[in-house]
Every structure is written in structure tokens, then in C-alpha cells.
Design brief:
The chain is an alpha+beta fold. It contains 8 helices and 20 strands. The chain starts with 11 loop residues before the first strand and ends in a 12-residue tail after the last strand. Bound molecules: fe (ii) ion. Fe (ii) ion (FE2) binds next to loops. Belongs to the TfdA dioxygenase family.
Length: about 400
């Protein structure tokens, strides 16, 4: 049977330049055909969906430029290209998080009336946006979460830090989604900022860049013994994990919590039960490459580790939270090097899709000081819908 035009892929992708990718294993740009430059989900052929899946699962973060005017209902439908069984609910719940006990409420994220699965994040106050009379969104930065934030002098010199590395997941009750989709409406016009790394290197990034590292790259950097440990280990997260850590402070890289003592007592958390506590393997599979394991865990929220020896069936448990954090941090912290970090330099109109179950990401930048300045406000749409199932183990 001859191929009809509609079954042939017209989308193409190419890797971002090697001086941007460095060793991160992250980043590709997808190009749409000239006669259909804005993504219309109902018009994407199966062949083009396959191009998107290949681009994403091989490169973990993909960008489609110049999507100004895209219909917001496209985002949740697009998420299902990567996760057909995704729930039709934002992974933070039907409404944006507003419970003051939950630190995820601090972003004051809104939701688009035209597509309730799409959140609105950014920095600044917006009037009459998308039918919302007044929207006030907060760009959190590391000074509110790090135990030893940058000094005023360093901030004045343009340094910033990753706020907190995470996957988009409430880490309680609902599951993380396979892909998160972001669409840039407005980016502040501000000078670049800089990240500093433990080896003395620095990386220049755009103000308000979203930073990513690959769980596949993080796994590769482990020793053979560490790989074996990670493959056999399950991470149990704290009950109501983001309430549990809401007064905690992090390490300078935003990966871990170095000091015990500020955790919320379990009896002071919102109502919870063990059956809803998140318990995920430490290493997750890549949906398109069975040989590519991703080290995926949230070091700040980890509570207990359970390691099963596959030969003997013997089970070892670490349930001292300080020790759990130490073990997690030891596995993850070497990824924090300039060459392993991809920091997306936003352009207005960008549609960025990232493999939420294959990378960790973080806010960077110090934007809150500019929130009143029209030229320096930031606005993004964000669509992250929970998967129907818990993440599977790379090694079942
Ligand atoms: Fe996020």
C-alpha cells in the first residue's frame, strides 16, 4: 500500500549545539513544517507524534520555538502523546495548591480558565489575564530555602543558585507524570546570571533559566557498586512530603537537606495515611531505550530506603532520615558540575517539553526583586498531569 502524505513525518529535530549540551545529554529543537508553524494537536499525524517521542526520550528536554498563540487545550492533549494513560488532572490536584502548610503553595500558581490542567507560574502581578481579574505569581529563589544562601555581595555580582531540584510530583497520593510542558508567554529582560560549582567553574545562564540534569547521566556517574545499590533500592518519601520539609533548609546545590531538626512532626501534618505515601524505585526505565536507566529521586523529601539483595532476597532498611539523606546525596551530588547542567534560555513563544521521569529540574534566578517592573515580569504556562501508575523500576 502506498504511503499517504499524512503518515509521513513532517516534524524534524536536531540536537542543541554541543557547546550548550556539553555532557548533559540534554536538549533538542523540534522544527514544524513551514505551512503549519503552530502546533495543533488534532492535526498531528502518528508519524509526527513518533518524532516528538523520539526527540524527547532521547534528549529529555525539547523545545519548539515561536508557539505564540497556541491553544492552551493543546498542552494536556500533547502530554498524552508521551503518556497515553495520563490522568486529565494537573499533578498538583484539580485546583492549584493553596494549603499554606504545603510549601508548593508559595508559588501562588494560578490555573487557566480555558484549560484547568494548565497552571500559570512566573513573577509579578498581571491584571485581566485570560479572564483572571488579578493574578499574582511568585518566583521563588534559593534565598528562601538554602541554609547558607549567597551573600548580598555575590547576589550583586549576578550569582544565583538552583532553588530546589525536583520532579513535578506531589510525592503523596498522586503520581508524577511522564512529561511536563511549559510555554513561555513573557520573559524578563535582565542581564545574565551565573552559577558557581564546587570545582570552581562557573556557568553563565539567562536570568530565570530553568535548569535540568539528566537522571541517565547521573546514573552513568555512579560506581558499579553504587549502580547495583541504586537498582535494588526503593525510596519511601515522607508523608505529605512537602509539608514535612516546609521549614527545612537545603545544601548550596539545592539537592539535599544537610541539617536535621526543622522537620514537621508527623502528627502536625495534614491528614495522611501510609497507603498514600509515595514509594518509588530509585532507578527508572527510559520509555524508548531499555538499556538506559535514570537515577530519579528527590533527595530533600526522602524518608526511608529499602534495599533488596536480588541474590539472597535479604532486605536492608535505612530509616534514619539523616542517614537516608546522606546516602541519597552521596549518589546524586556529583551531577552538580557545569558540564552536566542544561539551563534553558527562554525565548517568548517557546514550548518546552521535558521528560519529567527522566530529568530533575530547578528554578534559578533572583527575580522577585523586579516583580513590580513591567519589563521584568515572567509568565509561563505549565502542564504536568499525573500518570495513571506509579513509576516502574528499571530492574523489576
Ligand atoms: Fe517543576
Amino acid at each position: 500500500m502506498p504511503h499517504s502524505i499524512s503518515t509521513e513525518a513532517t516534524f524534524t529535530f536536531e540536537l542543541l549545539p554541543s557547546d550548550i549540551r556539553e555532557s548533559s545529554q540534554i536538549g533538542a529543537q523540534v522544527s514544524l513544517p513551514e505551512d503549519a508553524p503552530i502546533l495543533h494537536i488534532d492535526e498531528i499525524s502518528e508519524a509526527n507524534k513518533d518524532v516528538l517521542r523520539q526527540a524527547l526520550f532521547e534528549n529529555q528536554v525539547i523545545v519548539i520555538r515561536n508557539q505564540q498563540g497556541i491553544d492552551p487545550t493543546t498542552l494536556p492533549k500533547l502530554a498524552k502523546v508521551f503518556d497515553p494513560a495520563a490522568s486529565d488532572i494537573h499533578s498538583a490536584g484539580v485546583k492549584a495548591v493553596s494549603n499554606p502548610k504545603d510549601i508548593l503553595s508559595a508559588y501562588k500558581a494560578g490555573r487557566l480558565p480555558r484549560a484547568p490542567q494548565v497552571g500559570i507560574i512566573g513573577s509579578g502581578t498581571f491584571k485581566d489575564y485570560e479572564g483572571i481579574p488579578e493574578l499574582d505569581v511568585i518566583h521563588l529563589d534559593h534565598t528562601t530555602f538554602h541554609e547558607r544562601p549567597l551573600s548580598q555581595e555575590e547576589l550583586d555580582q549576578g550569582y544565583t543558585r538552583p532553588y530546589r531540584w525536583h520532579m513535578d510530583a506531589p510525592l503523596y497520593e498522586r503520581y508524577p507524570g511522564e512529561a511536563t510542558i511549559l510555554h513561555c508567554i513573557k520573559m524578563p529582560k535582565l542581564p545574565d546570571q551565573k552559577l558557581k560549582f564546587p570545582d570552581g567553574k562557573e556557568k553563565t545562564i539567562a536570568a530565570g533559566a530553568t535548569a535540568f540534569f539528566s537522571g541517565a547521566r547521573a546514573f552513568e556517574m555512579l560506581s558499579d557498586d553504587e549502580k547495583e545499590f541504586a537498582l535494588n533500592t526503593t525510596v519511601t518519601y515522607a508523608p505529605q512530603a512537602y509539608e514535612y520539609i516546609r521549614h527545612c533548609k537545603s545544601t548550596e546545590d539545592g539537592l539535599s537537606i544537610p541539617t536535621m531538626g526543622r522537620e514537621t512532626a508527623l502528627e502536625d501534618l495534614s491528614e495522611w495515611s501510609w497507603d498514600k505515601v509515595a514509594e518509588y524505585p530509585m532507578v527508572w526505565p527510559n520509555p524508548r531505550d531499555a538499556t538506559r536507566p535514570h537515577l530519579q529521586f528527590h533527595g530533600c523529601c526522602a524518608y526511608k530506603l529499602t534495599t533488596r539483595n536480588p541474590a539472597t532476597g535479604e532486605v536492608a532498611v535505612v530509616d534514619d532520615v539523616a542517614e537516608v539523606r546522606r546516602v541519597c546525596y552521596a549518589l546524586q551530588k556529583r551531577i552538580w558540575a557545569a558540564e552536566n547542567i542544561y539551563a534553558h534560555r527562554w525565548q517568548e513563544g517557546d514550548l518546552v517539553i521535558f521528560h519529567n521521569k527522566g530529568v530533575m529540574h530547578s528554578i534559578t534566578g533572583q527575580l522577585a526583586q523586579y516583580r513590580e517592573d513591567e519589563e521584568k515580569k515572567r509568565l509561563l504556562w505549565q502542564c504536568t498531569m499525573g500518570s495513571a501508575e506509579a513509576p516502574k523500576a528499571f530492574r523489576p
